[in-house]
């Protein structure tokens, strides 16, 4: 059985195209008629697809498979397209959603990735229902009303507002904005949105991003403003965009003074409108208004599937789904845990508390007071697959480590994601920015994310010392790499010589001017270091006469915990720079439970 993800949408934002998506399932709609009369004939490329879709629409079929709706990325030779522009139309949604370039170019269809996004959006708002057994989709009663409503009418507007107020992530954002005394950037919202602490829900530190923007050159500015964001930050931006179109949220462009005291365009800030404040309070229920039930599906409750792991994501979804069902009649942590055991889910209390907190940031209102837990929302009933799922061994090990931190430390959940992304080469930027955020937020050091050409990943410092930071996300651990020794040596020499002819970007200017010249260090951070990495440290020191070290994520977080408990003075960190793998807190070898 194929298990898909719904509930989280990153790119679609056009309500007109959303309606076209829904009308694909409505034989009485004008768009369905256009597909039947000419779009299939004109745009579908392969004859077999053309014939199949024409027969279906001629017979008023209104339930379609995922493949029929989203299609594939094939070129004219029926081979995988090497680039999007080579792909041909082979699905109903591809020919329904016109690309932005449709008016200037002859291409009258979109790609399968965009088609998937709009289908996911329609399902997430309950306009289209999903049959996970057959992997098919059809219109809902609410979707039929939306399909039949006139464009830009009051009826259409009311339908869209209602579905947003039943969609948990949208209500979470409205509640955050309603409780905020000032506008919030996507980073401030993303930091409190979704299943925090998981790979699919990263959020970048707001102050870190603003400082990066202020220190960036003109070429980097636009990219940082638009392209650099965590996944939760992107969800926040997209949902705020929907809400602003419905006049529930308003947005404002900010300005900052950069390092040259020049005014630059900053990140957008979002705030709730009077209509939005009224709407969320009504949706949450009052003496005069019955609360709107939240629409939830099992497929909403996790997003990322680890490579080679087809079961852990589904297990997490099932655990959270049964937790929500348990909360209807169980009001203590122990009784919820007992309910989970009845469904063969045996978890520690720390995992349950973490799930409850993540369900809150997902958009479900839950009150937790010591051992008491109360569900404050009505939730539309949903189904759970009748199948047994389990975590893979690596995820079980990480969960045990995380639970030790949850039990014995006050490290925010958002930083526990480092255990996952530190071993994922595709998440290098996440690793860079979240690591810098941890040094700033928990260690209390100043941190600047640099990145880009001829710059280290970051700079960590106070008035007494500075650290040149380089992060490495590797699946099997990080060992010796000659090229990266050369890079670090160059950064160390850049900082020492500070010659703008040698490196005109002057990245070293982020350091405090009072740092003594002999108090600069280098640091590599990774999930785990191989034995060969010791040679990298030795060679770097030998070539520069500067001290540094390597820091594994486990020790990075143990050090953060020690700083919080005042067992580690950050001013003592230079003493650990001995060109070795650093151990802030001694632990027994291979003992992840020594926290």
TrEMBL record:
The keyword rRNA-binding does not apply. Residues 4-149, 156-262 form the FokI recognition domain. Residues 411-563 form the FokI cleavage domain. Keywords: Endonuclease, Hydrolase, Nuclease. GO terms for molecular function: endonuclease activity; hydrolase activity. The keyword Hydrolase applies. Pfam families: FokI_cleav_dom, FokI_D1, FokI_D3, FokI_dom_2. It comes from the Bacteria. Residues 311-370 form the FokI D3 domain. This is Restriction endonuclease. It comes from Lactobacillus delbrueckii.
